[in-house]
Specification:
275 residues, alpha/beta, Rossmann fold, 2 domains, six-stranded mixed sheet, five-stranded antiparallel sheet, 30% helix, 23% strand
Length: 275
């Protein structure tokens, strides 16, 4: 086996090599074994695995994965794009998206831009998101806040109500709480999406999210949080939107994403001379 190091792309033999990951860290243990911290390429999961369970992906394979990832984003944009040419100026809700993954931040910005949305994306590690929340809300004054990155259950299938069984849910929860404190002070009425793969859905909602992942403790698609933000942004300010309104756009429906809903953030300014 070639030496596996930070930045490599790998799959896990024990899971049938079904998900592609990049290597975040390699931890050397005292018994001369190594545990590798992994982040999903196109699903928002963080996991760990013994180094001997990993299969190294070749550069050629990785190029093909990247091409497929980009094609997937373009397909989603083509499916969802709405021609908004009108005699009215449409203000779509402003999105602030904090993402713990650098590559996802870049891909997210491509999606928002192509969809014609007013969005700011910042790559902030999950554990630092609560600390910068007030600062970024003050700078960007968004209507919609997306808080995401990677997550996962440490003991999969057990301890659903133990916050320490989730890799990053506690950071997402603290971020929501900080955002709601800010919101109460300034009356912005933010719409918040929070979470990633296998996140502690109930605790995220209790903290103050409008939408969150993952009710079924399943993997969610990279694009799912963006789909939520997009639909809120383009929904009229007088209309209440729920997951049912965009269910067909989510990869796994309400098992992956759900919530209490929110008022849309789109508004119109009539301009009769506009062609």
């Amino acid at each position: 086996m070639n030496e596996i190091k930070k930045g490599n792309i790998v799959t896990r033999n024990s899971y049938g090599n079904d998900i592609y990951f990049y290597v975040k860290r390699v931890l050397k243990l005292t018994n001369k074994k190594s545990i590798v911290i992994l982040k999903g390429i196109d699903v928002r999961i963080e996991a760990d695995a013994p180094i001997e369970d990993l299969k190294l992906v070749t550069k050629e394979e990785y190029k093909n994965i990247e091409k497929e990832f980009d094609k997937k984003i373009i397909r989603k944009i083509e499916e969802q794009y709405i021609n908004r040419r009108t005699k009215e100026y449409i203000y779509t809700g402003k999105i602030l998206h904090l993402d713990g993954d650098k590559k996802y931040s870049e891909k997210s910005m491509i999606y928002y831009r192509k969809m014609g949305l007013n969005a700011i994306v910042r790559n902030i590690p999950e554990n630092k998101q609560p600390k910068v929340m007030n600062k970024y809300l003050a700078i960007y004054n968004p209507d919609i806040l997306v808080i995401t990155g990677h997550d996962g259950m440490i003991k999969n299938g057990t301890d659903y109500n133990n916050i320490y069984n989730y890799r990053n849910s506690r950071h997402f929860i603290e971020s929501i709480k900080e955002a709601r404190k800010y919101d109460r002070k300034y009356g912005k009425n933010l719409v918040i999406f929070a979470g990633a793969c296998q996140s502690y859905f109930e605790a995220l909602m209790d903290a103050g999210a409008n939408f969150a992942s993952s009710p079924g403790r399943i993997l969610i698609d990279f694009l799912d949080p963006l789909v939520v933000a997009k639909n809120i942004a383009i929904t009229d300010k007088n209309k209440y939107i729920t997951t049912d309104d965009f269910l067909s756009e989510l990869r796994d429906g309400k098992k992956g994403i759900n919530g209490i809903g929110a008022m849309g953030k789109k508004r119109y300014i009539y301009t009769p001379n506009r062609m």
